[in-house]
Design a protein that fits this description.
The complex is a heterodimer. Chain A is an alpha/beta fold. Chain A has ten helices and eight strands. Chain A has an eight-stranded mixed beta sheet, with helices on both faces. The chains are: A alpha/beta, B alpha/beta. The structure holds guanosine-5'-triphosphate (GTP) (2 copies) and magnesium ion (2 copies).
Chain lengths: 277, 294
């Protein structure tokens, strides 16, 4: 039989592989391993099962600390959806619109991605599927002008929730980040405390770059919520652990497919169990 | 950066006298952490470190006057070798027309945009007459997206109907290209999960129907650990001929490039470096190596 020391090293290596492979990242992994090693050395953990439970505990601690749901305490409640290219913003908006409509809310969408080919038509299709109104202008129009119109319309039409779709952009592109800051200022001209939620959409397949993305979008806009998409794939999305720990931003929803109903509220316990299985 | 980390690691060792296997292990650990922070896959990093270890011990780094620089040199050489330094990674063009290319990959990786970019690139640099073929009948406005890209570039786009089967679209598009004397067909497929049996079968059926000269796996440069499993599955099902790495205009370290290359052995042919239709470049191994190593 292996001596206790070898068993520990073997377990630690397995843990390291499990955590790194889930995209939890080096920094958070080293921090968690350190805590586990402390408990092993105090002989408080005797087998892999106990170690995993301890790990579950620590992960849950991080995720629960910042866990909070969206509260629609403003009318119209304005949500601005942002993120890098291709993460699933437009699709997520379709899902959210449907979810909110089904819960009895009057929803309005704004097609403020006036740049990418067929972006407006893509969101229009989702509006049609959820049977919801959409504010749009011509391709190439000023995105802030669309946002402005949409907020005005939301007020005039007594809308409960307005969701604004923006073009994907890399967080490193200063002028594109400025465009989003301008949109936020323009929204504030109409409703001073809007947008009430700045929702950053992250892709579960993304590695450590998600930290840089969150940092830059947060610095530019004060991100108030995160959606992690594509968790129906094989990526574990462990990056949310580092992101929520570092920036204190709540994970609101997860995307689990391409259909309109494929959205769930973030459940920390289920998420941690999925990582550790 | 890697050189800063190694310098400081070696400075700690210097005080303790001669280099030995134990401190080589410490150095190797530093290198492994750099790779993991750059999103290189856990297992790929482990294998890579073993190559570096063998070379380090074999080349008597232990006796070197500048061990830190020696290590960096070994790491860079090993990585460039794996990345395909010296290998032919050109697109297949010398075929009886039309050359048929198929773009595949996960959702949102940049396939549709890349189809436009490749068409533009080959028309500009190799005088090709491309046909863009929208074979994504699932995503809302996907066909329109490629149609608009074609219009922007003044490049022909096959008039796909979203009620059609992607396999039929692909087949008919080849006849269409021949009729119109277009010598390059770019088939844009829907994003899909590598674990979606039905949709992976669809790709196999498209391949069987039109026998592409290039099957390009389009991967997002910011992909994390799962890059290996995704690439492995697409490769084992389709025998991809090349890789396109997109969104390299960001600040992702791009470790996925090493992972994908290591697991498939297939060449990285092109890189996407922006949202505009001329933002595409040929892949150079040495550039991605310095990026991964920070
Ligand atoms: N499997 C899966 N696919 C998703 C999910 N969310 C979005 N997608 C897919 O991801 C792709 C990109 O989605 P979009 O909604 O266009 O992403 P976007 O962020 O709006 O993209 P840009 O506007 O171009 O930046 C589409 O193929 C979607 O169907 C998800 O939760 N699971
Ligand atoms: N910055 C940057 N954005 C890119 C690059 N390539 C593609 N994009 C953007 O990434 C987003 C997704 O691109 P698409 O071409 O729609 O991706 P796709 O793979 O066809 O998506 P699906 O068909 O839904 O799977 C769009 O916003 C593109 O403009 C690139 O090299 N750099
Ligand atoms: Mg979008
Ligand atoms: Mg596409």
């Amino acid at each position: 039989l292996l001596g206790k020391k070898e068993l520990d090293e073997d377990v630690i290596e397995q843990l390291e592989e499990l955590l790194i492979s889930s995209d939890i990242g080096v920094k958070t992994t080293l921090y968690l391993i350190e805590k586990i090693e402390e408990r092993i050395s105090r002989a408080k953990l005797d087998d892999v099962k106990e170690v995993k439970n301890a790990l579950k505990e620590y992960l849950l601690e991080i995720l629960m600390k910042n866990h909070s749901e969206l509260i629609f305490n403003r009318k119209p409640f304005v949500i601005m959806v942002v993120g890098v290219n291709g993460t699933g913003k437009t699709t997520t908006i379709g899902k959210l619109a449907n979810k909110y409509k089904n819960s009895g809310k009057k929803v309005l969408l704004a097609a403020a991605d006036t740049f990418r080919a067929a972006a407006i038509e893509q969101l229009e299709e989702w509006a049609k599927r959820a049977n919801i109104d959409i504010i749009k202008q011509k391709e190439g129009a000023d995105p802030s002008a669309v946002a402005f119109d949409a907020v005005k319309a939301a007020q005039a039409r007594d809308v409960d929730v307005l969701i604004i779709d923006t073009a994907g952009r890399l967080h490193t592109k200063v002028n594109l980040m400025e465009e989003l800051k301008k949109m936020k200022r323009v929204i504030k001209k109409v409703i001073p405390d809007a947008p009430h939620e700045v929702l950053l959409v992250l892709d579960a397949n993304t590695g450590q770059n998600a930290i840089s993305q969150t940092k830059m979008f947060n610095e530019a806009l004060d991100v108030t919520g995160i959606v992690m998409t594509k968790l129906d794939g094989t990526a574990k999305g462990g990056i949310v652990v580092a992101v929520t720990n570092e920036f204190g931003i709540p994970i609101r929803y997860i995307g689990v497919g391409e259909k309109i109903e494929d959205l769930r509220e973030f459940n920390p316990k289920e998420f941690v169990e999925a990582i550790l299985e | 950066s890697l050189s800063e980390k190694l310098d400081s690691a070696f400075n700690k060792i210097r005080g303790k006298g001669v280099l030995n296997e134990k401190n080589i292990q410490d150095i190797l650990r530093e290198i492994r952490l750099v790779l993991l922070e750059a999103d290189v896959n856990y297992k790929v990093a482990k294998t890579f470190i073993n190559y570096v270890k063998e070379r380090a011990l074999g080349e008597e780094v232990l006796k070197s006057l500048t061990p830190s620089q020696q290590f960096i040199k070994i790491v860079k050489e090993e990585m460039e070798r794996i990345m395909g330094g010296g290998e032919d990674n050109s697109l297949k063009l010398e075929v009886a027309p039309p050359a048929i290319y198929m773009l595949v990959g996960l959702q949102g990786s940049g396939k549709t945009t890349t189809a436009g970019k490749i068409a533009n690139f080959l028309r500009k640099n190799f005088k090709r007459n491309p046909l863009l073929v929208p074979a994504d009948v699932y995503r809302p406005a996907a066909i329109l997206q490629l149609k608009k890209i074609g219009a922007q570039l003044n490049i022909d786009c096959y008039p796909s109907d979203e009620k059609e089967n992607p396999v039929d679209i692909a087949k008919k598009s080849i006849d269409y290209a021949k009729q119109k004397n277009l010598d390059l067909v770019l088939i844009d497929t829907a994003g899909r999960l590598h674990i979606d049996e039905e949709l992976m079968k669809e790709l196999e059926n498209i391949k069987l129907a039109v026998n592409p000269h290039e099957i390009l796996f389009v991967a997002d440069a910011m992909t994390g650990q799962e890059a290996v499993n995704v690439a492995k599955e697409f490769d084992s099902r389709l025998d991809i001929t090349g890789i396109v790495l997109t969104k390299l205009d960001g600040d992702a370290r791009g470790g996925a490039a090493l992972s994908i290359r290591a697991i498939t052995g297939k060449p990285i042919k092109l890189v996407g470096v922006g949202e505009k239709l001329n933002d595409i470049e040929i892949f150079y191994p040495d550039r991605i190596v310095s990026r991964i190593l920070g």
